[in-house]
Amino acid sequence: MLHLHLHFFVDAPIPNAAKHPPTAILIPAMTQPPIPESTPPRHTLDIVEIMSILPHRYPFLLLDRVLEIERTKRIVAIKNVTVNEPHFQGHFPGYPIMPGVLMVEAIAQAGGALLLTEIPDRDSKLMVFTGIEDAKFRRPVTPGDQLRIEVNVLNWRTRAVKMHGAITVEGKLVCEATVTCQLVPRPGIAPPPSSAQPTSAQPPVESPS
């Protein structure tokens, strides 16, 4: 878009200036439009994209959306808690409370979404717990709450990760834990062949005698 700056130039003095007032000449000035400040891209995932990364399915898929991802460093996800989730039938009748172990599981799944995006053969892998430390539950979570799950990586390896997760509801901390997870082969699914794997040798062809 062109921005027009109006520059006014007054003609040189002429006789009988009272009869001939100064005239104005409009000259458009070409200027560059201001360059907007760039903002860093935010990587988000919807539920379909989450399901393409994690193997979990209902009723054990505990993420609804990923809001932010910093590769190998940090992830923020949300989980909408609804009364039709099956664990509320028995935990507890008349007073539904989300089990604390499921909140820790939600932390691990968020970390899994972060870790598995870096694994090219993730379809042949599962992520399992190898440790849970310093798990604390500050207040109950009930249907209608929205969990904000923030996970920060403490130690990253190719096949394992240690991370700290914190869950808040309306800005108040409800759960936190440090979890360690590891990738293991998924039974029944063979990994894709590696491009570096040597091809089988062709049988020798006999020369005619």
Can you offer a commentary on this structure?
- The protein is mainly β and 209 residues long.
- Helices cover 11% and strands 31% of the residues.
- The protein has a domain at 47-185: Thiol Ester Dehydrase, Chain A, CATH 3.10.129.
- The chain contains two helices and eight strands, in the order ββαββαββββ.
- The longest helix has 17 residues, at 100-116.
Cα radius of gyration in angstroms: 31 Å
* Number of helices in the DSSP assignment: 2
CATH superfamily of the domain at 47-185: Hotdog Thioesterase
Overall mean confidence score, pLDDT: 82
**What's the CATH architecture of the domain at 47-185?**
Roll
The oligomeric state is single chain
End-to-end distance: 82 Å
Fraction of residues in H or I helices: 10-25%
Number of strands: 8
List the helices and strands and how they pair.
Elements: E1 6-7, E2 27-28, H1 47-53, E3 65-70, E4 74-80, H2 100-116, E5 125-137, E6 146-156, E7 160-169, E8 172-185
Antiparallel strand pairs: 1-2, 3-4, 4-6, 5-8, 6-7, 7-8
